[in-house]
Fold this sequence. Notes:
Layout: H1 3-73, E1 126-130, E2 151-159, E3 162-170, E4 172-174, E5 181-183, H2 198-210, H3 215-226, H4 232-259, E6 262-272, E7 275-283, E8 288-293, H5 298-306, E9 312-315, E10 329-331, H6 333-344, H7 348-372, H8 378-401, H9 408-416, H10 423-426, H11 435-451, H12 457-476, H13 480-488
Amino acid sequence: MDAGAEIDELRAQLAARDSDLAARDSDLAARDSDLALRDAHIARLEKQLDRALEQLGRVAELEAELANLRELLGRDSSNSNKPPSSDPPGTGAKAPKKKKKGRRRGGQRGHDGSHRELLPPERMDAFEDYFPCECARCHASLPQIPHPGAKRYQHTDLDRDGVFRTEHRRHRVACPSCGHETWAKYDPNKIPRYPFGPGLMAAVVLLTGVYHLSRRRAVRLLWELLGVRMSVGAVSRIEKRMSDLVAPTVDEAVEHARAAEIKHADGTSWYRAGVMVSLWVLATAAVTVFKVLPDGQGETLREKLFIKVCGVLVSDRATALKFWAMKRRQICWAHLLRKFVSFSQRDGPAGRIGEELLGYTSIVFDYWSSFREGRLSRAELIARMAPVRLHVEALLERAVAKDIKGLSGSCEDILEHREALWTFVERAGVEPTNNHAERELRAFVLWRRRSFGSQSERGDRFAERMMTIAHTLRKQGRSVLDFLVACCTPRPEGEPAPSLLAAS
């Protein structure tokens, strides 16, 4: 083979090798590209994994926080250091369920009862002795000779000077002629039927029904402060008697409130033996009456509280009161103010609408304050409120049109009450707020927090009647104690009972 052929062969081999190398370089480049794509994909997966791990960690934190909050929510006096008084009705510490024995509450038949022991004679302040006039057998006149076994009736009363105890004694006298022993007759007009007088009974219900001491605390206070022994059962009986005595008086006040031309109403919850019922107040300038009702439905309010729809009613936007004509209602602007504040605390359009509504509400209260202070006449108030009314209602309509969750629906409901928003502007004696009723109801709410309500319907009647008397007399500047004493003091036949309307 000549040299030229060898050179050509070598060149061919080199070209083949170069081609192979080029193919390998191309393969390596393709592989490098694949590896780069894989590295980028792995990097993305690692980032996603990091985010997932971070989210799992956050989920674990939230689950721990949720468990802690649930534990806090479930704490009561049975599983923490919280006092029993902090347990809300129905959710507080529960005793283990006991098998029902079919017995009603209270003392059972056959048990050893407790009775009030008579005090020694030296503890008495006065004595009343009763002797028979003649022998029951021969009708001979009898001498007034005290008998050591006389039947004793002790009566305790309370007045401004303190406790006064009287012992009434019925004596038995032997006839000098025939020897027959005759007892002095029991005279209910002279010997009190009850062991406690009007002053003491009034003080008891003042403690439990007005100042809201528990019966046991009231018993303890009477003993430690006045030296008067009384059982919890006696307190309960006094409450029932006083509640029955003042019922006609309270009914008269209720009728007066129903017929009033301007009245304020508000409601809240009440508990009867742990079951939620409804508590309502009806307040006028002269009286304040309370009613515990089975529920707060409109039909119940109409039948048991209002009876008849008359006058102007100041209230919040409670659905149960929609049976009252809007043109004879006044919606509380203090409630609207709180609603507008909640709007203003939101972001976006809702917050801006809330701020505008707050601005107009401020103008409303400024004009009203000027009117109450005498700086504006009624005509000037009407003139200045007219453009405010137009702007407020136009703004509420724009809020409804925007269809904002949590805002538009509330504004639409307010517009449904538009006739009842401005009654105070033109109607004399009507306030723009329902603060009157809310203040009256507050004392009852505080009582509910301390006592968790009542245990029976009888307890409901006692509570509502005592609070009606207390709040009505307070606004009239009259003494609650003196009024209660007058209610349970025996009166001559035909004399009317004390009235809560006497001062009005």
